[in-house]
């Protein structure tokens, strides 16, 4: 949209746009700032900014008093594990849908995606009972399975949109050269679809990292990831805002850093690969 | 040998789809069937010593009870409010995106700021907003006090609590929708916009007739993720108010959790009945929506 814009106008829109960005970013900023204040300073009214007492003590205390490393490790295992398992199931399925489409492939896809809109509670009781019976409650393995099931429709859908962009002739050529099916997928399709697979992986790691519904229901202590950790931290010690801010900041920091460095992949992930 | 590889070729798609479909049956089809069945029973979730199911068949009694349960009606109404207000994120995100889709200095850093709300866990979002609403020192509380002279503890007022929680949820949702549209706007064909401009299209007409049709994929995803977001009300409600005050901010998913799995009781059948109602509402909504999208897709 090449239209001549006067410098004055440009300055104005820049200003307005940055204000919007600031408002959107503000709650996060406020939490991070609060995590470095003393408890008294955190609840001061009017809010203190320049005159606040700054401290690192909250972080030290949260680190010592809680099992942060264990929760962190649980989060890593659960989000990575569920995503990798999901990819292993979804890559073949998406291959079939993208390269050997049947008459009903589109319907099947739409139907799968629509179940993502299904409220999780509709399936909660039977799955909870099933997990109970199988002894999967409060285990990391159980959560890996649950979150994989939950995100599978999105993984399949995203991979499908990426795979569809790869010209079938290239796979055909590989086939002509005598590549078997497994080789075709492993050595031809996968490398070509790597950016797509990376976006899918990133988005699903983030979704799994942030998942609270299933983690609250299916864990108590042993396998609880960071989302459950903050939720529990807030209950008994609800009045310690600065410490809670520190705990929250520590819980989201890994994902913020990951997100910052992978924005480009993330954008495609966020749009489920449907918007380029 | 040739026929074997041919066989392999034609069977492979089915073999490849099978694990995915199996997972799907485990996660969707079977539990929904189970929920439907359970909703006809009165059951405390326990098995007897032989490991047998101890539920008692009660027919539609659970549903009759729901009908006259005020807590259920409150939750249902709240769910509708959630869904309706959440969908506002779509036009809001679109408008902000269209406004921002101009050359702005420092665009890279600037766009990054919009990612933060989305990648943050709902649990943390709930906490942050609880502090904003907190009486006396909460930022939002202070602003209200400054404007009206009278502070309002949003989360403690039955009248406002649901709206307060929804506002917290809308914050990341609007940012998300905006990212979707900003990305989509990159691909709007400039020659079409130019042609429309020569034909005298401006402002709203330009947006409605020229730009919006090209953003259809973005709109599709925006509606999908917004509906999903509205249904995630559980996270925010359980963090911010645990349904209070006096159950006024309950939503169906939270009420069901209370009935079936929390310390308030293990009424599995009753909980399942709530789930069935919620599922039914979503089916109406989803099927209409999916039907329309499917029609659009096949027309192209």
From TrEMBL, chain A:
GO terms for biological process: transmembrane transport. The keyword Heme does not apply. It is found in: Cell membrane. Residues 72-262 form the ABC transmembrane type-1 domain. It is a multi-pass membrane protein. Belongs to the binding-protein-dependent transport system permease family. This is Carbohydrate ABC transporter permease. It comes from Paragemmobacter kunshanensis.
């Amino acid at each position: 949209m090449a239209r001549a814009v006067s410098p004055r106008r440009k300055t104005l829109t820049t200003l307005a746009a940055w204000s919007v960005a600031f408002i959107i970013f503000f709650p996060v900023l406020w939490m991070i700032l609060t995590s470095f204040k003393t408890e008294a300073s955190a609840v001061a009214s009017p809010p203190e900014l320049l005159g606040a007492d700054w401290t690192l003590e909250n972080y030290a205390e949260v680190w010592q008093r809680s099992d942060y490393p264990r929760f962190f490790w649980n989060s890593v295992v659960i989000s990575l594990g569920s995503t990798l398992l999901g990819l292993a199931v979804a890559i073949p399925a998406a291959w079939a849908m993208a390269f050997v489409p049947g008459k009903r492939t589109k319907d099947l896809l739409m139907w799968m995606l629509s179940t993502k809109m299904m409220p999780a509670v509709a399936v909660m009781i039977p799955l909870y009972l099933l997990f109970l019976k199988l002894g999967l409650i409060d285990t990391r393995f159980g959560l890996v399975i649950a979150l994989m099931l939950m995100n599978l429709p999105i993984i399949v859908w995203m991979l499908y949109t990426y795979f569809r962009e790869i010209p079938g002739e290239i796979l055909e050529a590989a086939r002509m050269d005598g590549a078997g099916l497994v080789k075709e997928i492993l050595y031809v399709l996968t490398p070509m679809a790597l950016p797509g697979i990376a976006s899918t992986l990133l988005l699903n790691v983030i979704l799994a990292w942030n998942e609270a519904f299933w983690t609250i229901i299916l864990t108590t202590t042993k396998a609880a990831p960071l989302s459950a950790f903050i939720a529990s931290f807030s209950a008994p010690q609800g009045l310690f805002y600065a410490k809670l801010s520190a705990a929250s900041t520590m819980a989201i920091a890994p994902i913020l850093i990951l997100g910052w460095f992978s924005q480009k992949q993330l954008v495609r992930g966020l749009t489920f690969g449907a918007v380029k | 040998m040739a026929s074997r590889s041919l066989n392999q070729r034609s069977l492979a798609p089915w073999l490849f789809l099978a694990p995915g479909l199996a997972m799907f049956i485990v996660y969707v089809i079977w539990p929904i069937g189970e929920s439907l069945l359970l909703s006809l029973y009165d059951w405390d979730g326990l098995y007897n010593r032989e490991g047998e199911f101890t539920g008692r068949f009660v027919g539609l009694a659970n549903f009759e009870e729901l009908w006259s349960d005020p807590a259920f009606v409150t939750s249902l109404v709240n769910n509708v409010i959630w869904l309706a207000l959440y969908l506002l994120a779509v036009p809001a995100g679109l408008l902000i995106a269209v406004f921002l889709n101009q050359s702005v200095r420092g665009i890279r850093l600037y766009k990054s700021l919009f990612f933060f709300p989305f990648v943050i866990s709902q649990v943390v979002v709930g906490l942050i907003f609880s502090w904003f609403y907190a009486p006396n020192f909460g930022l939002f509380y202070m602003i209200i006090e400054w404007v009206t002279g009278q502070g309002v503890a949003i989360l403690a007022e039955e009248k406002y609590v649901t709206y307060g929680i929804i506002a917290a949820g809308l914050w990341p949702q609007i940012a998300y929708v905006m990212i979707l549209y900003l990305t989509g706007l990159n691909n709007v064909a400039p020659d079409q916009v130019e042609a429309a401009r020569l034909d005298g299209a401006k402002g709203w007409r330009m947006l409605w007739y020229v730009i919006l049709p090209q953003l259809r994929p973005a709109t599709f995803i925006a509606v999908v993720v917004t509906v999903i977001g509205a249904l995630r009300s559980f996270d925010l409600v359980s963090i911010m108010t645990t349904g209070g005050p006096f159950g006024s901010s309950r939503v169906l998913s939270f009420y069901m959790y209370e009935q079936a799995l929390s310390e308030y009781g293990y009424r599995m059948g009753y909980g399942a009945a709530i789930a069935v109602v919620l599922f039914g509402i979503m089916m109406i909504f989803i099927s209409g929506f999916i039907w329309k999208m499917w029609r659009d897709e096949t027309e192209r």
